[in-house]
Every structure is written in C-alpha cells, then in structure tokens.
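User: I'm writing a tutorial on reading structure tokens. Could you give me a worked example: one chain, its sequence, then its tokens, then a sentence or two explaining what the tokens reveal?
Assistant: Sure. Here is the example chain.
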Amino acid sequence: MMQGNDKNLKVAVLGATGQLGAPVVQHLRDRGAVVVEISRRQGVDVWSGHGFEAALAGVTTVVDCLNVATLSRKRAVDFFATTARHVLTASEQAGVSRIVCVSIVNARLPEVHRWMGYYAGKAAQEQVYRAGPVPVAVVASTQWYELAETLLSQTRIGPFSFVPGLRSRPLAVDEAAAFVADRAVEHEDAETSVSDAVIAGPEIRDMAELARAVNERRGGHRRVVRVPVSFTALGQGGLLPRGDFTKASTRFEDWLSTTS
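And here are its predicted structure tokens:
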C-alpha cells in the first residue's frame, strides 16, 4: 500500500481496456493511485506513437499491459519491439521514473518461445526494455485460467477445438492484475524500482484439460482434442516458474464455479 506522498503517484496503464489492463486500472485506483488510461479507445496509439507523448505528462510509472491477438511470430515481434521502443522514448522525454512490463514466465527462453510466436514477441519486448534508458521491472505471470477459453477458439475445425497440453501453474487474471498493481505502487527507491517479480498459480495443471472443463461449463458445444506437446519445453516444465515466486490462491475449480 502507498504511504506518505506516494498517494500522488500517477500511473499510466497501456492497454487499459484489455483483459489485464482493465483490472490493473481498478486495482491501482483502489490503492489510491491517479491512473491515466492509455488505449486506442482513448485516442492514443502506442504502436504508431499518435498522442502518446502528451499522455505521459506528469506520469511517474508506466505499466505496459499491451496485447496483440496473433499467433504470427513476425507480427508479435514487430508489435512488441516497436511499442517498447516508443514507450522508452516517450518515457525518457516525460521523465518517467520506471516502467513495469507485464510478461510471461520464461517467455525469454529460446527453448520456450521457439514454439510460440506470441512468446517470441514478449521475449523481444523484454530485450528492448532491458536495453533502454528507463529502469524497468518485468512482472512475469504464468498462463491465466481465462486462456483456456481463448484456446477453445484459437484453433478450430468444425466442431473440434485443438488445444495444446501446456503444462503450467495457471491463475486468475484478476490475481495477476492485483500483483501487477502492487508492483507499480511500490516505493520507488533504487532497489525496488528495478526489481523483477513472478506470480504463478497454486498448482500445476494441463491447459487442455482446463479448456475441456471450461467447454463443459459452457454447455459442451465443442469437442476438445488435446494436442500432445510433451516433446517440447511447453510440455516439459518450460512454462513453470524457476526460483522464487508469489503463489496465487484461487484454484481453477473455484474460479470456474464463479464464471458465467
């Protein structure tokens, strides 16, 4: 929680209307921060840079929750690397103290991102930020329970949904958002301003099995085919956190029981 003059902390959230960005905005406001919502819906495009520099006036911390819906490695790398460069340039000019970049656990590892184009984009994003002039804290999350729904529609053929058997420690997106918000409002001394952090779910699960459970909860309209990926890092623990991490508390079944 913020103390003293931290109550005047002004945080810009990029991708503020997205699946992660929207709850991050709410959690930051709950913690007393002044939040600047940045998204194309607000007329600001980080990709092109249109309106971006002016939006950072007076901002202390930038939280990057940007997302692009793609499986293409080329598009993901281009999007995340380009936006990171724009964020760094505008943040340096605006005098931003630090950037909090939301990433995926182990996305930077070649044995992981070689299999998923989107993860390659996140790896490029981290690399650009870490080489930049503004201190950055990378907050890495494992997959979200909500990804199970996305996977149901991502690779569909007729009534079938082909879902990879990713081995992960998934968590609810709202718990990830609360964790990101906490990192954004930490006191900005020399130590915490550049501290990375990791959050993961309470137990190891198979994402294809979670997708199957979500499908049943939604009425069982799809036929979920589990695609084995045990020959890759994705199925051999490459998506699991290494070292210290914060463990989220909500189990999948409890999350599922509260979803409509």
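What the tokens reveal: The mean pLDDT is 92. The chain has nine helices and twelve strands.
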